[in-house]
Task: structure prediction
Amino acid sequence: MTLILTNDDGIDAPGIRALQKAMEGKGMIVAPQTPLSSCGHQVTTAKALHLQRRSDSEYGVGGTPTDCVRLATQQICSDVQWVLSGINAGGNLGVDVYISGTVAAVREAAMYGIPGIAISHLIKRPLVIDWEVATQRTAMVLTDLFTRPIPPGSFWNVNLPHLEPGAKEPEIVLCEPSTQPLPVSYRVEGDLYYYQGEYSQRDRAPGTDVDVCFSGNIAVTQLRL
Result:
């Protein structure tokens, strides 16, 4: 099947290489030339998009993740069957999906009737992401999700937990997305306001994706346009 791999951390980020490895090298990479985390569903229409062809199966785009999906589906490939986005360095849980460029990529695909899966990895400091482990867990989740039917206009959002080395392997849990807001606070210095909300302190209603992932399991939600 024709696969497009993209992200919002940039084409040189370790996460997209881990995703490619999880797919055993399958898929065409069409990803932003530079990191664009938290860009949401931003698109480029008022200026030209630069397309850097690195190889027959790898393109860097001078634009957003949504731009990448548009170019991939409308200009580069004629028959895209899946769009995979990630592996994002950081969670995209609950209401994060409105902010996330990682999730926006697969949402854009869903607009064209193309199924997609966004994969993100929670960061629990001071731990550092082990991309080999992330690759293995992503491969396991993808194997599962590729077999599940998904209605038109829908897409999957996956969040991997950040576990201590040697911890019990996480389970895949299908759940509902949290609708609780992110913690918002600012440090004020004169007329400057610095955001300092703590992601780990967000509300976690029982059974929601935030609660599932924070509890050490792989949270999978099915989202609709």
The mean pLDDT is 96. The CA atoms of residues 50 and 62 lie 5 Å apart. Residues 3-224 form a domain with the Stationary-phase Survival Protein Sure Homolog; Chain: A, fold (CATH 3.40.1210.10).
